[in-house]
Give the backbone structure.
Amino acid sequence: MLRRLVFLLLPLGLFFSCRNTEQKTFHENGQVMEVFSLNKNGEKHGSYISYYEDGITYEISAYTNGTLTGTRKLHYPDGNLEIEETYNEKGELNGPY
């Protein structure tokens, strides 16, 4: 019986230990400042969104194992797009922005 229980729980433990954990930080006024995920090594991994104190989106980007990759968009306080730039898999700025 114990052997079956271990056999069933081991895959679940591996599944949950490999998952990214979502993190949120907050401005002093209680508004969300950032939403992102950390991999098992504590590095940003996946989508990253940050906000101004009034809740308007400031940045939308993505990370791969702690490295900024893909498209990064920065917004003015009124919500309009300020900068759009692209990063390669090494985290280097790729092309014009």
In short: Residues 4-10, 12-17 have pLDDT under 50 and may be disordered. The two ends are 61 Å apart (CA to CA).
